[in-house]
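R.M. (postdoc): so does anyone remember the format we settled on? I'll just put the structure tokens first.
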């Protein structure tokens, strides 16, 4: 089961990375991100999207290390703390996306954050 949760989490993070890359490249889908106030992101938010892609990579490394597929981080303490930090981060993401002023962002990102919160919590408990 941990392998399924790990795959789900990493596939979602990869999808989110592609989404953020699309925003950086000027796709008119800004209503689904960053509060939804821009159709095409301004430079500051594009920088935020770049940082998000970097963070998603770190998140995937923590998730994969916790699941042991493969272990990128040899320190178990870092991995164990990291996975719980991610579970809490995604739980907070459910709330933050749920109160977004952008209805499209609420409808898309809230369930995504919920799945990530559930899968990372499951991985953390395994």
């Amino acid at each position: 089961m941990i392998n399924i949760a790990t795959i789900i989490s990493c596939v979602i993070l990869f999808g989110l990375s592609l989404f953020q890359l699309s925003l950086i490249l000027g796709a008119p889908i800004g209503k689904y991100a960053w509060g939804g106030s821009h159709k095409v992101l301004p430079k500051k938010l594009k920088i935020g999207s770049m940082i998000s892609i970097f963070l998603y990579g770190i998140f995937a490394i923590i998730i994969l290390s916790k699941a042991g597929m493969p272990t990128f981080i040899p320190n178990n303490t870092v991995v164990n703390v990291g996975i719980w930090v991610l579970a809490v981060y995604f739980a907070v993401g459910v709330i933050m996306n749920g109160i977004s002023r952008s209805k499209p962002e609420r409808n898309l990102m809230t369930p995504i954050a919920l799945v990530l919160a559930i899968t990372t919590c499951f991985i953390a408990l395994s």
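R.M.: ...and that's the designed sequence above, right after the tokens. Also worth knowing: The CA atoms of residues 5 and 119 lie 5 Å apart. The chain has one domain: 2-125.
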